[in-house]
Write a structure and sequence with these properties.
With 197 residues, the chain is α+β, with helices and mostly antiparallel strands. Helices cover 34% and strands 39% of the residues.
Length: 197
């Protein structure tokens, strides 16, 4: 599944490039994420996600596989597995930065491969969830940058809030459920209109 997002960072492109590649600085801005270790371009951590009453914790590793400062383009690959064996997640994320006045536009293209319960939500819901997560990340990052103080650190024991996938998808999921419920009614009504009286 491919998800494309765009957000703006309120600093010039060269500064934004340095900030976005500083994993220790940006990780606390990502909802549900905890950074555990950094080793050069590679790092490990976990992400908590809720699907209804079930909380999944993905532990994994990610690495910048390419960085091009001239074009302000970077690619990150990540793989994780739910600690209870309920699914896996893998992603290749390409980030392109472009100057936009005194700010920076960040275009993010994520190729995702998800198994287990979150995969059952479907592409449309996962796209809406992805948009919301990126939006929250961008807001937290902008607040961190403009306040010039680091974001609050997460508790390494794992008390960070999980990403509530169904909560984030609420409106989108509700629209899909209502559309599904309305289909039989529309078919029945169309059949009645075709039937001669």
């Amino acid at each position: 599944m491919r998800i494309e997002n765009t957000f703006t960072v309120p600093i010039p492109v060269d500064e934004a490039w340095a900030v976005l590649l500083d994993i220790e600085r940006v990780a606390p801005c990502m909802p549900g994420a905890t950074l555990e270790s950094v080793d050069g371009d590679a790092f490990s951590g976990r992400v908590k996600a809720k699907v209804g009453p079930v909380t999944l914790t993905y532990k994994g590793r990610a690495e910048f596989t390419s960085r091009d400062p001239a074009s302000h383009t970077a690619t990150l690959t990540a793989r994780g597995k739910d600690v209870r064996g309920a699914g896996t997640a893998a992603a290749t994320v390409t980030m392109r930065l472009a100057a936009e006045g005194g700010a920076t536009r960040v275009d993010v293209c994520s190729d995702l491969d998800i198994t287990g319960r979150p995969a059952q939500l479907g592409r449309g819901v996962m796209t809406d969830v992805g948009n919301t997560i990126i939006g929250r990340f961008a807001d937290a990052l902008a607040e961190q940058i403009t306040s010039e103080r680091p974001a609050p650190a997460k508790d390494p024991a794992g008390s960070e809030d999980a990403i509530d996938l169904l909560g984030l998808a609420g409106g989108s999921l509700l629209r899909r459920i209502l559309a599904a419920l309305a289909r039989p009614f529309r078919r029945s009504r169309a059949a009645q209109e075709r039937t001669p009286s």
